[in-house]
Amino acid sequence: MDSPSSPTTNTKTNSLDPPLHVIGFEITELTPHKVTDHLQVTKKSCQSFNVLHDGVSTFLAGSLASTVTFVASGYKKIVIVQLNFNHLKLNTFILI
C-alpha cells in the first residue's frame, strides 16, 4: 500500500476527486468493500478559531459516499438523495 504522502496516493486522490485533493485529503485504498483515507487537519481546513470546519467534514462525507457508491455499483452512475450529518465532537488544530 502507498504511504499517505506518496505521489501515487496524491495522484489517485486528485484523479478521483480533485476538490478533496485540494484540501489535502488522500484516498489510500478504495475497493467495493473498503475505503481508507486520511485528512491532516490544518489551518486550510479549519475555521478561524482552529476547529475543523463543519462544511469540510460534510464535504468529505458526501464526496466519499458518492465515490464508494460508484465503485461498489460496478462504476454505474448512482444518485445519493439525502445525507444527514451530526457533529458530535470538535476536531481542533493546535499549532506547535
TrEMBL record:
| GO function term, MF aspect, one | 1,4-dihydroxy-2-naphthoyl-CoA thioesterase activity
Secretion signal, residue range per the UniProt entry: none
Q: Which InterPro entries match?
A: HotDog_dom_sf
Q: Which SUPFAM superfamilies match?
A: Thioesterase/thiol ester dehydrase-isomerase
What is any one GO biological process for this UniProt entry?
Answer: phylloquinone biosynthetic process
Query: What domain of life?
Result: Eukaryota
Which GO cellular component term is one of those annotated? peroxisome
Tell me the protein's name.
Uncharacterized protein
